[in-house]
Amino acid sequence: MTETYADLIAAEDVLLFVNAAVTSTGQREFRSQAYQQRLSLDFLHEYVRVNYRTVYAASLALDINDHNAARVVEQLLRTAGEASGEQKRTEGRLIAARLARLPPQRVYRLFRALRAAKVGNRRTRAILRDWLAARPDLGHDAVKYRAGLKTAARHFHLPLTTAAGTGTATGSAPPAAGELGDFLFKPGVRPRYEHPLLDAYRRAHYEQGAVYELPLTVAEGFAARHGVAREAFVERIAPRMTRLERLRTQREAGADGAGAAVRTDLSVMPLTRLALYALSLTTEERVRRRAELTGALRVAARRAAGPYAGTWGSVAAVLDDSYSASGSGVKRRRPLAVALGGHFLLEALAAPGAYGAWWTSGRTDPLLVRPYGPTPLGMRVIDALEYAPERLVVVSDGWDNAPPGLAGEVLRVWRTRLDRERRTSVVHLNPVYDADGFDVRRLAASVPTAGIRDAEDLPALVEIAQFAEGRTGLAELRAYLDRRIESFLRTYERSGAT
Fold first, then answer.
1. Residues 47-73, buried b or exposed e (16+ Cβ, 10 A)?
2. Is it the case that residue 14 has pLDDT exceeding 50?
3. Distances (CA, A) of 122 to 77, 320, 412
């Protein structure tokens, strides 16, 4: 009995960390400051790494956010002496697979963090060397992530030769031997470079036309130096923009985003980022572009649903658009965007015609939601349960305050008195980390709760939320993690990565 209780406690500890690693990025939230978020995360990372190192490494295979994934990698590499040989082998595979998924700027930031921590052992150098070798074009990295690549080469003694970056992101040949080293550490030595991006960077200092051969973030600085008007610069650099860069600059082309130079296909955007974009528009713009925005959100939702589309039966959603869904200055409208993306994703997951949504404000038009008013979750949960769904999904920060605690009491009575056979499964997904409680805020002990950052992760998080009910122990959780690790590594290895 003692062992079973210990397993349950261990499972709860691990789920605390997973919820934190999914939702928190160490930034200010609506009800907590950045330093509180960082202190809380510091404690959880240290606690789980020391007590459950295997599970700590396994979290890299879960849908934790990039901030915490990079932090897990850093902690594993800094404390390699605490791991056994078998643990190191598994950690190495997980780290390599996760680094391949991280944005390159975050990996280069990780290089700098490891340098500051004076980590430079053989294992770390091998992992980072393999990551650099798999980069599609180191010439591109040398221009766009110059400081990060210099740090990696200097501190970790990584070779900058044709053996690295043998692929090309720009369609050009890889840098010639010695070019990268000269470009990074001996600028001005070569009169020209064979690699077109390296040479474009050299020419951009005095030739305005070369500016438009560079990545946007690099070209912006040169354009300002040459005094190029922003509108003219955006129009000429548009062919080199990424989809996200097009989305960020689309509104500069006009109130209706109709500028052909920066026009982007919204339907190819990730669901949560698309929801954030829709919420950034004025009410008038949303009304005017209703068909375009709604169609794009539904396409993105169907893409995120994948093979699960239409398989969830009847679904009811309680979605939080109260004032606290406005987020903070650094995460503006993030909770509301997760709720909006979740609305369209749940609509895609439900059987045709078997979906109902209840916003806390009482609004019925999802495209026009805005963060306003209190959080009457209890009343909306009652409305949703009257729909008699097979699944009830609540997307909220959990601060039920109109009246306080009603949602938890409604769900308790529903589970213990009215639905003992569990005909309706209930899951609470919370997009906000509660730094004081070291977890996401829960509605009731009987309701499984999981943290969520991106609406696209909703199906997987509903699956992991079953472990939050307190009826499964560490053995079941480890089995689930083993399945996720196997799938994660298989996908990485099938991608052709070295």
1. ebbeebbebbbbbbbbbbbebbbbbbb
2. yes
3. 11, 49, 54
